[in-house]
Amino acid sequence: MLKGLGDIGNLMKLQKDLKSMQKKLKSMQSSAKSQDEMVTATVNGEFEVLNISIDENKFKNASYSDVEKACKQAVNNAVSENKRIAAEKMKEMTGGMDIPGMGDLF
Question: I need a labelling partner for 44 at 20 to 30 A (CA). Which of 36, 50, 74, 89 fits?
Answer without folding.
Answer: 36
